[in-house]
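protien #1 (seq + structre)
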Amino acid sequence: AFKLPRELLVKLNDMAVIPGDEEQLVVSSGHTVHILDRSMRTVTSFRGDEHVMKGITADERSIYATRDSVDSVARLTHDGSEVYTYEDPYYYAGHCPVLAPGGLLFCVCYGEEADEQQDEIMALDAKSLQLCYRFGKSLLKGASGLAVVGEELFVCDTKNDRLQVFSLAGEHRRKITGEWKRPLGLCFVKDRLYLVESCVDDEYGPCKDNLACGRRICVLSLQGKTLQVYPVPAEGIRFSGTPIYFDSKLLVSYVYRDRSRARSAIVALRGA
């Protein structure tokens, strides 16, 4: 277990890391964003507008957040001041944001008709949030978590049970499959990929192929070979987001399937 303040777990949306010597954890909970130090003390917090900030990522100067109900991406200062916003009337845009070298911000976007074959990745200029290019259409079905590894972007192609690998310029390079199913989120740490699975199958019901699906962490080489599997013993849970690496620990959020306990918790893999 990882002891995030209890009040932040009630409506946990996403987590991100502000890098640097004084590494900090960014937590989006409900309509509020909190920045915490390693001791889990809140350094600062701010409330957004009426829109929930579902997906977040961060760097030394900015926080990038997906605003759920308006399907936009916002660039904010660490005190919550909005700098730029990107909106697209034709796409549900901005899911699973991740920063890349060269000043790029990658996000998943979906066509306005919610057609699975319209899933794409968009590249924004991280400073101005101007659209640079899109790619991946027709290759992705249920696109989810993203991870930047060197000069490549790994994409969870959830409903195709594979990872798709692109250059940062959007060129498709290869696909990776393995014993895992329905990849939901990825984190790159020290030449390893840490993958978590969705517990939902193609018919939006519980995963029938593997009872552990949705509550295990798979460690992969960059070529896609499974090196280790860490099952989470708790019953009645499902992973709910992309893993992050904070304070030498891999943090993965999960939610209880039992709605009477409608809150999240965090599991930590120490020394990843």
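ok now protien #2
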Amino acid sequence: ESYHKDSNRVILKIAKAYEEAIKEINRDIERMLGNLMKGNELTKSEAKKLLNQKVKNEVIEQYQRLSPTIEDAKLKQKIIAHIEAQAYGARITRLEALKESVYLNLSMIADVELRECEKLYTRTINKAYYLNCYDIQKGLAIGFNVAAMPTEVIEEILKTNWSGLHYSDRVWRNSQVMAKKLEQVLLKGVMTGKSYRKLAIELEEMSEDGVFAAERLIRTEMTYISNQAELQSYKECGINEYIFVATLDSRTSKPCRKMDRKRVKISEAVVGENLPPLHPWCRSTTRMGIDDEALASMQRRARNPETGKTYLVPANRSYSEWEAQFTNKST
């Protein structure tokens, strides 16, 4: 929960970036289409004629204006490659100009997301590593020195392609999928004679999908990042196994329910199989593999599915055992 609270600030920044991008796109729509859409219902032929009219090519000018603010070098290269591949002349159609506005503004959102996420993930790796080392020593009632988290390990965690696609590529893919969706909404809105105001509202509503995709990615990556850092702390402290810990509430997935309280050797940890995350939005974590007697003296949190209130249960109680008490009550 602590790690995900840190995520909230980044998600808010991304939502703000979407808000600003949609405003910029709407300003471009109003500027490029003039007063023709303000309260006027264009026919299909009028809309088509309007979109195919040639206007001054401002794509390069837009990029030059935005380029200094883009921090991600890989992203900057992709934008340059995209612009060069278009081979636009001095004049382009209004439709092409509007598509480029969407593309560049969504690319700017990707830059914000990549920049903020890298800082968030780096902070979380260090926080999770040292906090778990502290918890291990507290649990063992033995204090000892631990090595600093090596820079190369942090970099390895950040660059690992653990789910088939690196998070930076997922950010880029999500932004381009969103750009295509916005282009379709824009084109459909103009071709069906929607007023400028109605189209602006629809674009704003559509941007919520982009924020949702960004949040899903960040929440899942945070689970991966924090568990990888804790895995390093187990190795540093000489812990040989961990216990899988699922969240005791009704939202927990079936894979995580089945893994709850299972013991796994550190050397056999595999992300997605026996080490969280097992799926998108995964909230599971781990604890060091202490013996059952010690575990029985500890507690873990659970959420009552009937009242929604959080309470404590013995730490050695598995998800299936916890769930059974409510199943029995209902029968």
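The CA atoms of residues 104 and 124 lie 30 Å apart.
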